[in-house]
Amino acid sequence: MIDQQDLQLLKTIQHGLPITSRPYAEIGKQIGLNETEVIERIALFMQTGLIKRLGVIVKHQRLGYTANAMVVFDIPDHRVSEVGESISKARFVNLCYQRPRQGKQWPYNLYCMIHGKSREKVCQQLQQLIKSRDLDPYDREILFSKQCFKQRGALYFTPSPSPLSVANG
C-alpha cells in the first residue's frame, strides 16, 4: 500500500536526484525520511514494479558523442530475447530493447543505441557487433540522429490545473 510519504518520494525523484554525494539523504530531508528509508522505499518500488528503473540521463553530445545511431534489426521472434541479451552485453551498446513490428513498412523488432564520437567509429562498432553476434543474416537499418531533443525520465505526476476563477457580476 502506498502512503503519503511514498507519493511524496515518487513526486520528488521524478525530477531527478540532487547532484550531491548523498542524494538519498538530501531527498529524505525534504520529505521527512532518513537516507536508509529512502533507499529501502525506492528498492521496494522497483521490486514491486511500481517504477521500472532509476538511472542517469547522459547528455551525450556535451561529452563529444555526436554520432548517435539507433540500429534496428528484424530478428525472428523465437530468437529476439537471446539476440537482444547478446547485443546488450557489447560494451559500446548503450541500450537494447524489443518493440512490436509495424507491418511490412517497418519489420524491425529489436533496437539498440550506439553513441560515438564519429560516424566512422559507430559503423566500425556496428560491423564488430554484426560479426561477433552472427547478425549478418538479419535485415537492419542504421539511423543516425540529426537533432537532440529534451531527455528526461518518466513523469508519474503532473501539476494539477489551477481552478478557473469565475468573475462575479
What are the key terms here?
Alpha-Beta Plaits, alpha+beta, 33% helix, four-stranded antiparallel β-sheet, 169 residues, disordered C terminus, 5 helices, 15% strand
Describe the structure.
There is one protein chain. The chain is of the alpha+beta class. The protein has two domains: 4-48; 60-144, Alpha-Beta Plaits, CATH 3.30.70. It has helices spanning 4-13, 23-31, 35-48, 80-88, 119-132, and strands spanning 67-73, 93-98, 110-116, 140-144. It has a four-stranded antiparallel sheet with strand order 2-3-1-4, with helices on one face. It starts with a helix and ends in a 25-residue tail after the last strand.
Give the secondary structure arrangement, pairings included.
Blueprint (H helix, E strand, L loop, with lengths): L3 H10 L9 H9 L3 H14 L18 E7 L6 H9 L4 E6 L11 E7 L2 H14 L7 E5 L25
Antiparallel strand pairs: 1-3, 1-4, 2-3
Helix pairs in contact: 2-3
Give a short overview:
With 169 residues, this protein is an alpha+beta fold.
Q: Please compute the radius of gyration using only Cα atoms.
A: 21 Å
Uncertain residue ranges:
165-169
Number of helices: 5
Number of domains: 2
Distance between the termini: 47 Å
Q: Strand sequence of the main sheet, in spatial order? A: 2-3-1-4
Protein structure class: alpha+beta
